[in-house]
Amino acid sequence: MIDVAKIRKDFPILSREVNGKPLVYLDNAATSQTPTPVIDVIVDYYSKYNANIHRGVHTLSQEATDAYEQARAKVQHHFNIAKAQEVILTSGTTHSINIVASGFTSLLEKGDELLVSAMEHHSNIVPWQMLCERTGAVLKVIPMNEQGELDMGLYRELLSDSTRLVFCNHISNALGTINPIEEIIQEAHEVGAAVLVDGAQAAPHIKADMQQLDVDFYTVSAHKICGPTGVGMLYGKEEWLGKLPPYQGGGEMIAEVTFEKTTYADLPHKFEAGTPNICGGIAFGAALDYINAIGLTNIAAYENDLLAYATAELLKIEGLKIYGTSENKTSVISFNIEGMHPYDIGSILDKLGVAVRTGHHCAQPIMDFYKIPGTVRASFSFYNTKEEVDVLVACVKRARNMLA
Ligand SMILES: *Cc1c(COP(=O)(O)O)cnc(C)c1O
Fold this sequence. Notes:
By secondary structure, the chain is α/β, with parallel strands linked by helices. The protein has helices at residues 4-8, 36-49, 59-78, 93-103, 126-135, 152-158, 181-190, 210-213, 238-243, 278-294, 296-315, 342-351, 364-370, 386-403, and strands spanning 17-18, 21-22, 24-25, 87-90, 113-117, 138-142, 163-169, 194-198, 217-221, 232-236, 254-257, 262-264, 320-323, 332-337, 354-355, 357-359, 375-379.
């Protein structure tokens, strides 16, 4: 059970006003808000032990290093990762995917096939297209149906001995669909293909267990799970991370440098060139602590109630259509009202204090599939309330009347 009134006190931003109205923040799929315990960790770091890590003999550097490595251990345990060296701390999902896509350049040949799901975020499409341009590999698309679910029959038909990699999000940021990644991973492995799952949207809702999933790569952005921006995770199986060359060269990622030759550091440092987002990493760990204290199971149950309520109430509005109607979905509602532009609806909602996202949500192929320019997207977190859903619904009605 969730005590939402108590939880909301942890989020100072939720008590501000926007355009003279109480803020109703429903853009959680773009970024989540930050609770005081995480803000405190950030202030504490810069007030007390800001220093560069890993190479200092002085006390501050050791304290910062310890806190950063503790954060890595928290990430490791949260995702049930076998070894700390399989946790690469990155700047977020986009960075994580680019590390893998870049690394596969030397592992692919012309004619190799990569399968991408039809409902990916651009950050899980474009790096692979760039990889295909470099290598002559071919990108094929796993189609989806009207409900916004992947066609698993066609997925099986696409899989072949030529398939090297499959990438798919765990949860779609534009539709909320929870994809059957267990099946996707298992079937890909049967033809010897590796799988990268983009977990950016799943981390705030689902506890993903890396060992149980047996996934090859998994990516997370801390800012979607109550942490700061500019930090995230790349999980990779040790055997894969060992095979991939480093993404960036620089400090921290080397064992020995001469002008003739450089040898690389062991994992995870091989993929962590330069001074990382030290404070962000530590705050990422604190965000996981915060989420785990509430419990992802409690969070999911509460958000599912909000989703059901909001869906039912919104569907009462004439001409409103929801995109992404899988039974298996999280608290994201993408919708349009017949004859109205999503941007106009979003602008009116903002005047009324309600923050939603409008547009293609970095997933233009989904919009092309539905033949629409974009949607209005309301995405709910565990700190949102039924009363806020009521405000959303009332404001959407008002926008509809104004635009009609
Ligand atoms: C937010 C998001 C991304 C991109 O994450 P960044 O933090 O911007 O790198 C990728 N995929 C999905 C599904 C997302 O929701």
